[in-house]
Amino acid sequence: MSWQAYTDNLVATGKLDKAAIYSRAGDSVWAQSQDLTLYAPEIAALALAFDDPSGIQAQGLHIQQQKFFLLRADDRSIYGKHQEEGIIAVRTKQAILVAHYPAGIQAGEATKIVEQLADYLISVGY
């Protein structure tokens, strides 16, 4: 399956409206939905935050120039919320999955979908 198919499948669930897959280092985009493009400083800060979340804890999580309230930041998952929408970022062995859920979607429903894809990618070596 192509990387683009993974982002398309995330959006097709109806629980996520934007998705992207970046290299683990955050230095290249592997796939993205039409409406999710992270600026270089945003993906760099996100990639670094999995190992040292102090930067996004102090400065906030910024995605597409929007500041999200940080809900969780550890070596696997970073979650953020802005009003009724949210961001889910999950790091695998080789990639970072980033997904956005819109207002009206429960955070837990969206999170489960992204975390399950991450589990699958980890299980197949990615």
Topology at a glance:
Layout lengths: L2 H10 L5 E6 L5 E4 L7 H10 L4 H6 L1 E3 L2 E8 L3 E6 L2 E7 L3 E7 L5 H17 L3
Antiparallel strand pairs: 1-2, 1-7, 3-4, 4-5, 5-6, 6-7
Report on this model:
The protein has 126 residues and is of the alpha+beta class. The protein has one domain: Dynein light chain 2a, cytoplasmic (Beta-Lactamase, 2-Layer Sandwich), CATH 3.30.450. Helices cover 34% and strands 33% of the residues. It contains four helices and seven strands, in the order H-E-E-H-H-E-E-E-E-E-H. Strands 2-1-7-6-5-4-3 form a seven-stranded antiparallel sheet, with helices on both faces. The two termini are 13 Å apart.
Number of domains: 1
CATH H-level superfamily title? Dynein light chain 2a, cytoplasmic
Q: Percentage of helical residues?
A: 25-40%
**Beta content:** 25-35%
CATH fold-level label:
Beta-Lactamase
Main β-sheet description: 7 strands, antiparallel
Task: Summarize this structure briefly.
The protein is an alpha+beta fold. It contains 4 helices and 7 strands, in the order H-E-E-H-H-E-E-E-E-E-H. Strands 2-1-7-6-5-4-3 form a 7-stranded antiparallel beta sheet, with helices on both faces.
Provide the descriptors you would attach to this structure in a database record.
single chain, 126 residues, alpha+beta, Beta-Lactamase, seven-stranded antiparallel sheet, 4 helices, actin monomer binding, proline-rich region binding
